[in-house]
TrEMBL record:
Highest taxon of the lineage: Bacteria
Keywords carried by this UniProt record: DNA-binding, Transcription, Transcription regulation
Record organism: Pustulibacterium marinum
GO molecular function ontology, one term from the record: sequence-specific DNA binding
Pfam families according to UniProt: HTH_18
Protein name: Helix-turn-helix domain-containing protein
Length: 291
């Protein structure tokens, strides 16, 4: 039976997908949770309370008011320690913000980049000012004003600019050096592409360059880091993971070989066959026969 909470979450997700944007207030002692595809949306949170935030392979322990910036390409999780917690959350897609001319540089700021500063400690005066901005966003999204999206984008950019002016005050448990951190996040991002659930939506990331772009680093830096930590190149790890997925699909689905190749990013079956033969020494057809 559909409950009131289920209807609310469904309505929330429908609006988020349709508009590419949503803001809401986190109420004190609120137990409600909105579920959405984190892969698609950037996140800004202004929260007051005690929490532990795991971002990539770093852990931030915070008490008081913080401003958090979530990148959809970098894994993160949030542990609320306080019995009371309050603030605001703003979700937006890259496409929504990029309708503004200056959005590209903002999304490339240290606030959202790997190894940057995703969490800022906020003073009481700063909290009051940011509260007002988040309140204006929530108020505006409920109006019928023709250009409200433009106005909301301006408010988001103002929050980002205010954040970039603040001196970061981090309490970080460092885990490994920069190369190890980058390698860990690369593997997180690699694993997010799998399992492939349908041949209708091929892999989004197929090359080292595409992974580097998503991690906001130069491809040469990514290659050096992964080679240093694992002894293998970025492309080798991608190829090995695609090969493992190909074997699983050949053995456990009824998709034809062309569909499997397409799902794994190969436009033509010949390209897939050549890749698979180079990686395994055998053909997809032979693996399927064995299974």
């Amino acid at each position: 039976m559909e409950t009131k909470t289920t209807r609310a979450v469904s309505s929330f997700n429908n609006e988020l997908k349709l508009k590419g944007f949503k803001a809401f207030q986190i109420e004190e002692d609120d137990k409600g949770t909105f579920i959405y595809s984190r892969k698609d949306f950037y996140k800004i949170c202004l929260t007051t309370g005690k929490s532990k935030i795991h971002y990539s392979d770093r852990t931030f322990e915070q008490e008081g008011t913080v401003l958090f910036f979530g990148n959809p390409h970098i894994p993160y999780s949030w542990e609320t320690i306080s019995t009371t917690y309050q603030g605001y959350t703003c979700l937006f897609s890259e496409e929504f913000l990029k309708l503004s001319d200056r959005a590209e540089s903002l999304l490339q700021s240290p606030l959202f980049k790997l190894g940057g500063t995703p969490i800022l400690a906020i003073s009481e005066n700063q909290r009051l000012f940011l509260n007002e901005l988040f309140g204006k966003i929530i108020e505006e999204q409920n109006t019928d004003y023709e250009f409200k999206d433009d106005l909301i984008r301006n408010y988001i950019q103002l929050i980002l600019h205010e954040a970039m002016k603040l001196e970061p005050k981090e309490h970080v448990e460092q885990q490994g050096n920069a190369a190890s951190r980058l390698t860990a996040v690369f593997f997180e991002l690699l694993e997010r592409q799998f399992p492939v659930e349908t041949p209708d939506f091929p892999l989004e990331l197929k090359t080292a360059q595409q992974y580097a772009d998503n991690l906001s680093v130069h491809v040469n830096y990514l290659n050096r880091a992964i080679k240093e930590v694992t002894g293998k190149s970025t492309s080798t790890h991608i190829a090995e993971r695609v090969t493992a997925e190909a074997k699983a699909l050949l053995q456990h689905t009824n998709w034809n070989i062309s569909e499997i190749g397409y799902a794994l990013g190969f436009e033509y079956a010949t390209y897939f066959n050549n890749f698979f033969k180079k990686q395994t020494g055998t053909t997809p057809k032979e693996i399927r026969k064995q299974s």
